[in-house]
Amino acid sequence: MVKKKLSDPLENRKGALFFDGFSVKELAEKYDTPLYVLSEKRIQDNYNRLYTALLNNYKYVRIYYAAKANTNLTVLRILQSQGAYLDTVSPGEVFMALSSGFTPDRILFTGVSVRNDELKMLADAGVTINVDSQSELDRLLKIAVPHILSVRVNPEFGAGHHDHCITAGPESKFGLWEEEVIQAYAIAERARVERFGIHMHIGSGILDVEPYVKAVDKLLRIAKRVHEEVGINFEFIDIGGGFGVPYKPEDKEFDLKLFSSKVVKLFKNKVKDYGLGKPFLFVEPGRYLVCDSSILLTTVNTVKVTPSRKFIGVDAGFNTLLRPTMYGSYHQILVANKLDESDKETYDVAGPLCESGDILAKERKLPTVEEGDLLAVLNVGAYGFSMSSQYNSRPRAAEVLIRQGKSIPIRNREQLGDLVSSQKVQCES
Ligand code: LLP
Known about the structure:
The chain is an alpha/beta fold. The protein folds into 2 domains: 10-39 and 291-419, Beta Barrel (Lyase, Ornithine Decarboxylase, Chain A, domain 1); 111-285, Alpha-Beta Barrel (TIM Barrel). Helices cover 30% and strands 24% of the residues. α9 links the parallel β11 (234-238) and β12.
């Protein structure tokens, strides 16, 4: 018998998977599959661990949760109750943020390719706008002169778990380069913007601390130039998110202690050396706060053996979890009712979509799987549901939250009617 090593909130009780104290089998029976199950406690723990680590080396810290990772209103509300602020990237996310109880002064908007009507909506709502281009700044100033403004900097260096997730450096569409940054602040200052921040986000899924050391160093040198050449003070300096999490059992954890002692300390020392006062240090994590707070339950429909491969056909595909198909991402999979059985077989775990790329896991070692077995896909709380779709006309999955020993539905499973609700059939007369 093999005992699988599981970490909080997962537990092995006599070979059966429990999540935050709940039998996942019972959850699947009650709510059906595919089902996202979230742990409130895990989100709270992640937030508190991060906040405490940052505070150890600098007093003025704010965590802006990157809503794009998971925009479920209850998730937003949980983080708001913890004291989080919010980073948003679309008017839709701002709407979600306001709907979940965030006040505009706690919302930052970091868009790209933003339309004029969107700028108007954001300015009217009173959220802090972080401009991504000279064009966006010029258009914003014609619509409204905000009290507070931030500029997204490309520190000329990025990092990330996949090319698609590197958001700075020479290939990146994001942010302004150093000389343009100086000009942008000069223009904003002449237009009588009163309060300022500065921002960067170098990428996503970064497990090492070194990229942050390099990028923060560059960002602060640019902030110093702006301060000296344009004569403005920064209320906040936002160093972005991107803190990685372990997906594979052998992956290391993001070293928060090291991040704080190296990056936060560097920040503290440089703002002092450069005479930048005591700006707030903003960070913008999405994945770190929510990723390991959720699993996806999916039922085995078919087991198919071909001359070359063994397929497990499940009821969740890339319509439900896109990351494996989009980035080749690895998500650990457990056979929820066979935790004590050894991994005897090698399977491809395939979804129900009519695409060959609809594979959640390739050549994965698992116990012998039978039809009706329940699989749990781990670490899906970030960019799981939020990237899901109705592709192949499949209604989106349901979400359930575990809170203080109770399971609470936080998103209804979509119904067939939801597939047609926004369409109009135009019949020929
Ligand atoms: N701030 C900005 C401006 C961002 O663009 C992002 C993510 C974040 C913060 C948060 O990054 P995080 O801490 O979650 O790594 N769909 C991809 C990730 C794309 C992230 C895009 N930007 C994935 O599933 O890996």
